[in-house]
Amino acid sequence: MEQLVKPSSQPKILLIGSDTSLTYLIGRYAERGGYRIIVLTTRPSAEKVRASKPLAVLFPSVESLEAAQPLISDLANWDIPVMVCSSVTDELRARELGADHCLLHPLTYDGFLAALAAARAPRDS
């Protein structure tokens, strides 16, 4: 007997990077908060990101955000928030590199939810 699998209605977050510990932590926070994490260890094309309709794209570090500048430039044309895990001292640099929101270290569940709430809020025109 065939079973129909419904697509997940959970908002998804694309995590682009290969930090195993961070992926685990963010995955736990996402599960607890009702989000789905899709981990991509290689940088996707902007078209692939757009087609997946994520709530946000998350980078594990300012360095990984910096390495993804062509993708960030392309995402600026679409309404897909870019998030990055950073320290308070790197927050300005992260914003200069195109991050809309920062998950500040130490990463907490409340901080994760606050960043996602900000990502979900309508952007100012």
- What's the order of the H and E elements? EHEHEHHEHEH
> Any idea what the CATH architecture is?
3-Layer(aba) Sandwich
Percent strand equals: 15-25%
CATH superfamily: Response regulator
Helix content: 40-55%
Overall geometry: globular
User: Which sheet architecture does the biggest sheet show?
Assistant: 5 strands, parallel
Indicate the structural class: alpha/beta
Structure description:
It is a single chain. With 125 residues, the chain is of the alpha/beta class. The chain is globular and about 30 Å long. The protein has six helices and five strands; from the N terminus they run βαβαβααβαβα. It has helices spanning 20-33, 46-52, 62-67, 69-75, 91-96, 109-120, and strands at residues 12-16, 36-40, 56-59, 82-86, 101-104. Residues 1-6 have low confidence and may be disordered. Helix 5 links the parallel strand 4 (82-86) and strand 5 (101-104).
